[in-house]
Design goal:
The chain is of the alpha+beta class. The protein has 17 helices and 13 strands. Helix 4 packs antiparallel against helix 8 and helix 12 packs parallel to helix 14. InterPro entries: GAF (IPR003018), GAF-like_dom_sf (IPR029016), OmpR/PhoB-type_DNA-bd (IPR001867).
Length: 412
């Protein structure tokens, strides 16, 4: 595995010797994120910030169960237990004192970011990236300082909404390189979710929840059902969630359709089908409106931004709003929300938050954020960021030159 890692990080191909598909894909993502194989995780939260973040984080309520299940095992085996948030920032790292001292040398400490985009392939970071339990052994780690370790981690979700909260991890030596380690940490994660469900039982009449960020077909949780909506129904619910006072038929037609030839009959047919799916108790008419309150993920992000909670807003931003939609109202909402979040990140100038956006699928070509990141990152990470920024500048210049050429040809 070390030979495969050396060959790959030197620019060679994967495959000789063979590398697990999970690890190979993670190594490729690490390279795309410009992670240095010789780098180390960076501490992002000081003691005061860490204390506040721990206190407010939902996983704090599950820590007694996690400690009860893993504490003695970690101490006796000279292992560590770790719990991170959904951004990969370590909230708790506990266990054998000697192992804790050794782990500090690679910054495996509370407050450090171990997301895949920051620290390369590692169990908690990769578990968050692929949203499933992961075991990473020795030289499978992308960064060399972590290759003396073996770890297993499993994601933890909110038992009600399904939202990713973070991950629970066990880290230690070669003794953890066993399938039982992965099964063990997965069982602990499920126990943590069960504890959270007990502490926050579902209300008798939970409000419908609309998830429309990062997906073309919205998901509606309604009365215990999970409905995947069609693209047009997704657009309609997004518009009505944004306009709780209701929208008249003629206005809704202009908000949803680019084609001015679409008739009111078409819209009425769509609304009839949607009412049959949702029920008349949720979808009212004259004007078209949602009869009750609906929790929508894009509105939650908007509220977080309005209150100044930029990190929380970014954590809940799963991607652009209905990214494939061309409905005029959705396009405006999508661009407005992304623009507000991007501006807040640039203004905050936090390198970790900027990196989360820049290395995402929707931020990899975002020149403004990459420029802000180049000004904010520590000196050790600056060369990789500047290289990406130069490539973006070159692509922009090439595109501008091509546009000028086509314009000149058209004029001729």
């Amino acid at each position: 595995m070390r030979r495969a890692h050396e060959a790959f990080t030197a620019g060679g191909p994967l495959g000789v010797p063979p590398v697990r598909a999970l690890v190979a894909e993670s190594w490729r993502r690490s390279v795309r994120a410009r992670v240095s194989p010789d780098g180390a995780a960076r501490v992002e939260l000081d003691e005061e910030e860490l204390a506040g973040h721990r206190e407010e984080h939902p996983l704090a309520a599950a820590m007694p169960v996690i400690r009860e299940l893993m504490g003695a095992y970690a101490r006796d085996g000279e292992h560590l237990i770790a719990v991170c948030d959904a951004a990969g920032r370590m909230l708790w790292v506990e266990g054998h004192p000697g192992t804790l001292r050794s782990a500090r040398r690679m910054n495996f400490v509370p407050g450090a970011r171990w997301s895949e985009t920051a620290a390369g392939t590692n169990a908690p970071g990769t578990a968050l990236a692929v949203d499933r339990p992961v075991q990473v052994c020795a030289a499978e780690h992308f960064q060399r300082p972590a290759q003396a370790w073996t770890c297993a981690a499993a994601p933890v979700h909110d038992p009600r909404s399904g939202r990713l909260l973070g991950a629970v991890d066990i880290t230690g030596g070669d003794g953890l390189a066993h399938p039982h380690s992965l099964a063990f940490v997965q069982a602990v994660a499920r126990a943590a979710e069960s504890q959270l469900a007990l502490l926050s039982p579902a209300p008798a009449a939970a409000r419908p929840r609309l998830s429309a960020l990062g997906r073309d077909e919205a998901l509606l949780q309604l009365a215990g059902r999970r409905l995947r909506l069609s693209r047009r129904h997704s657009e309609i619910l997004v518009v009505l969630a944004h306009r709780p006072e209701g929208v008249g038929g003629d206005e809704l037609l202009t908000l949803l359709y680019e084609d001015e030839s679409v008739t009111p009959v078409t819209l009425r047919a769509e609304m009839s089908r949607l009412r049959g799916l949702l029920g008349a108790e949720l979808l009212a008419s004259r004007p078209y409106r949602l009869a009750g309150e609906v929790d929508a993920d894009f509105l939650t992000v908007d509220r977080r931004l309005a209150s100044g909670a930029v990190a929380t807003a970014l954590g809940e931003y799963a991607g652009p709003l209905l990214p494939g939609s061309r409905a005029p109202a959705v396009v405006r909402l999508r661009e407005r929300l992304a623009g507000r979040l991007r501006a807040a990140l640039v203004d905050r100038a936090d390198p970790g938050l900027l990196a989360d956006w820049a290395y995402s699928a929707w931020g990899e070509d975002d020149l403004a954020v990459w420029r802000a990141l180049a000004s904010a990152v520590p000196a050790a990470q600056a060369p990789a960021v500047r290289a990406r920024l130069s490539a973006l500048d070159a692509e922009l210049a090439s595109g501008a030159t091509g546009l000028q050429r086509r314009t000149a040809q058209t004029r001729r």
